[in-house]
């Protein structure tokens, strides 16, 4: 008789439990048994040829000639995944970088030369490595996420000595040294308020995108690095020349400029120093293997100095983590986050929440027309010296229409700067035009309108200079006063005009009245010439 408590499913569970105990009592795990069977089959089965690797068995076909049937693949679901022996985590970030080295080593006299140069300057190496500790963890994280060699984390040592404010003579900027046009092609925004070529997060993203693309193009990390320095077109042409001449196609085989020839050897030299600093008498500062900074969102425009104060860090440290912000104010619509040292992020958020004063003392203003700096200062209520300093306007320059300037924020204009202005604002300048006073004598049929057209000025302005009406007809020989640019050349109507009495010598040179149309034609022509 079957007991009342007996249930078929319960019996099945008991049998399964007993089988599991029996398996645990064996000396080898199921995976070990499978390996033993495979090893035995390999010992008794046919040996692979020495001419190359044997092809792997197709799934489910077993080992041919072994007498063993098909081997069922292991299921790697979360329950059945075999245990993985974890490696000891790196003691510091340098060790983590060493573990990720994956590029082939370069060994030549140029590498030896650069090693000697660097090892002879331990103080310089120490300054560079101390500067790098703010940024290295983030770069290594990104490299590992993309499965890229960690040697690339050392590239800013070569490019900029890990100085995000570095600018080369060719106008390359930032830690990764992006040229303006290359930066734009990788979505690094450059406007009146920020330069993302200097931004820690954005420039790193763009640099790794670029290097990945170059590696995919050339299939070789040394060639990819050469292209990063020299340009992908230059490397492609050098490879084509070598191929046509039957020469080698490696980095060392190419005919390159001196800077590019030393580029990979420099990186290899730094790699060797990082791999074994004691051998070269180099001391590396300890860099903990955890984030140095974290991103903190901001929702209102805020002065840079105030942000640093609320975070309780120095202005120098704040700018070191946020080097793309070129102005004294952060526009939240264009820069919705700041980077702060890990321990100061919560401090900033707490202090910001309790702060009662005005956050921003600057705002953006778009010039409605071309004007002098003095006029812009008058319209915005900003001292002219401050307007020049904050916007980088040199002497003897006009502000062109549509320029976006940073001006002092008034009580009446306390709204935050909109996204369209924060993202696209630019400052465009034009040279001031120095005018000279000249007197000509009218010919038969000359009028205010005809002379204004001939000399490229507004009729109303010419009438104002001569205290006459805009419809006035001049008598032949009548003296007419003009204010002309000192470098102006006659327009076509002037050149085609018949010979006439030479104008009187310019006297009493003075600025023209503040009428925008007075020299608009000459200004446009001069702007076109400067662009050409």
UniProtKB/TrEMBL annotation:
GO cellular component, one term: membrane
PROSITE patterns from the UniProt entry: LYSM, TRANSGLYCOSYLASE
UniProt domain LysM: residue ranges: 438-482
Record-linked CDD domains: LysM, MltD-like
GO biological-process terms attached to the record: peptidoglycan metabolic process
Alphabetized UniProt keyword annotations: Signal
Annotated region (Disordered), positions in chain: 35-72, 486-532
Start-end of Low complexity biased regions: 495-506
Signal peptide: 1-25
GO MF entries: peptidoglycan lytic transglycosylase activity
Family of this protein: Belongs to the transglycosylase Slt family.
UniProt name for this protein: Membrane-bound lytic murein transglycosylase D
Organism of origin: Tibeticola sediminis
